[in-house]
Structure formats: C-alpha cells, structure tokens
Design brief:
Elements lengths: L7 H17 L8 E2 L8 E5 L5 E9 L2 E4 L1 H4 L8 E4 L9 E3 L1 E6 L13 E5 L26 E5 L14 E8 L1 H7 L12 E5 L14 E4 L2 E8 L9 E5 L4 H8 L16
Antiparallel strand pairs: 1-10, 2-3, 2-5, 3-4, 4-8, 5-6, 7-8, 9-10, 9-12, 10-11, 11-14, 12-13, 13-14
The structure holds 2-acetamido-2-deoxy-beta-D-glucopyranose.
Length: 269
C-alpha cells in the first residue's frame, strides 16, 4: 500500500529536491534497470480481465501465486488474471485464472500487518525457461544481507506511468531498529516480526504497481512488497517476510488453513 503523507508541504519539498534527478535519468521501478529474459521467471503480473496491471506476485508452485493481501482484497477470483512468462505484462507468455483467493485472516490488523495473500489457479502452470517457481526460504534472512533483487512493473515516479518492460533493482536488508527510525514519521505504521525492510538510497525503490512483487535473495523469495512511501523518497521499502509466513502458506496450501478469510474463497467448478 502506498502511504499518502500527512505533510503535503514536506513531501512536496522532498519531491522538488529529487525531481531534477528523476527527470535526468530513466527511472522505472524508481531507479531500476530493464530486466533481461530469464532474470525473474517467477514474476507475474496480477491483472484485471482486460489486462490492466494491478500488482506484482510470484509463482511459488505450479498452481500457486503469492502476493500482497491488499492486491487481492475485495476481488472475487473471477475478476483477476495472472500473466506469466514475459518481461512485458501486456504480452504475456501465458495467462492463468485463479479459482480461489486466500487472504490472511488478520490482514491489515494491526495496520500494514499480515498483508499477504495466495491465489490458487484453475490450471497448472506450464514451466519453461521464462516461467518458473521461485524457491521458498527455510531460514531467516541474515541481517544486512545485500544483493536483494526486487522486480516490478511499478511506475517510474509518483505520478508516472508504468514501464512496458519489467524493471529490477538491487536493495539491501535493513535491520528493524534502523528501519523503524526511518519510518517513524509514519505514525500508524508499526514494524512487526512479519516485516522485512529493504533499502538502497533515495531515488531507487518501489512505486505504484510494484505492490505484491517479489524480493529475492540468491534465487529464494524472501519478501512480498507491502508498503512504500511514493516513491523512492529516501524511506525503506517494507516487505512481508516470507519466512515468517511459511506456516500460514503451508497450512493454506494444504487445505488446513484456519486463518484465511473464507469470503475471498470462490471455487469455480
Ligand atoms: C479456468 O478459468 C478460465 C476463466 O474462467 C476458463 O476460461 C478456463 O476454461 C478454466 N479452465 C479450467 C481447466 O477449468
């Protein structure tokens, strides 16, 4: 979710300070580079039925997509589609359809927490060089890990349009104390054990349309984009920690989940 500042003057000033750089360079994600074929074969675009990009997500198994809760909240399964196997969301390798959506039962409770959702597809994803499931973590990410890769089709600036080609950016894990202090101006945001912070520098980071997208370390999915301050204004990007939600995912995927909002679950056939 995008935070809208309570201090429009301040953020206006911040924007002014940065807009010289924004105009001077090509900024997608913000400040990303074009991904190349095979860079992120797990990346998907969550879309409306007419193919408008809504959010990112990751293939975690041949019938399962992991994304942020706020990306799927309120959508019946029949109103979403999943584009796979392409650097261009408008020219997907294949399109799949969810038959069930599972939202964490404590989604956004407290605010910005448990922002995680799973989509079950009605057909098996055909894997190929450009379409693969990402590995899931089996241990927590060490503090300060560098070379985290985030990918998305998010906007190039707070008021910008979406790039047609997938963008990638490298970020670094940020310890929760430093992260909390950088996020302290955002009063209703409280860091929880399920959060993971990543940061690079001002002018490089997530923007609208990146939500739900995958943060990967060494081929393993470590985060799902939860929260950003639009966009890349020198504040860390906040992810849901995939390791922290492994049990929830396992239970939900095995059909034994007791903590998934059932009103989101619409099974067709
Ligand atoms: C999956 O859903 C789509 C869209 O509703 C439908 O066109 C397709 O036939 C379904 N596939 C199966 C195997 O049910």
């Amino acid at each position: 979710m995008a935070f809208h500042s309570r201090f429009p003057l301040l953020s206006g000033l911040v924007l002014l300070l940065f807009c010289g750089c924004l105009l001077a360079q090509e900024h997608f994600i913000v400040g990303g580079q074009n991904a190349v074929e095979g860079d992120a074969p797990y990346q998907v675009s969550l879309q409306t039925p007419v193919g408008s990009h809504l959010c990112g997500g990751a293939i975690i198994a041949d019938r399962w997509i992991l994304t942020a809760g706020h990306c799927v909240r309120g959508y019946p399964a029949s109103r979403l589609q999943v584009a796979t196997g392409s650097l261009r969301y408008a020219e997907p390798g294949a399109v799949y359809y969810p038959d069930a959506i599972y939202l964490h039962c404590n989604y956004d409770t407290p605010k910005y927490q448990n922002d995680i959702g799973l989509l079950h597809l009605n057909e098996t994803i055909v894997f190929d060089a450009l379409t693969q499931a990402v590995r899931l973590p089996s241990s927590p990410l060490p503090q300060g890990t560098a070379n985290l890769v985030f990918t998305g089709w998010g906007a190039q600036s707070a008021s910008g349009s979406l790039p047609s080609q997938l963008q990638r950016v490298q970020q670094q894990h940020l310890g929760s104390q430093v992260c909390a202090s950088l996020l302290s101006p955002y009063e209703d945001l409280e860091l929880a054990p399920g959060h993971l912070c990543a940061y690079r520098q001002a002018n490089i980071g997530a923007c609208h349309g990146d939500s739900g997208g995958p943060l990967v370390y060494d081929g393993t999915l470590v985060g799902v984009l939860n929260f950003f301050v639009p966009c890349a204004q020198g504040v860390p990007d906040l992810f849901m920690d995939v390791m922290y939600y492994r049990d929830w995912m396992r239970q939900t995927m095995s059909g034994n989940g007791k903590c998934a909002q059932v009103n989101q679950q619409i099974i067709i056939g």
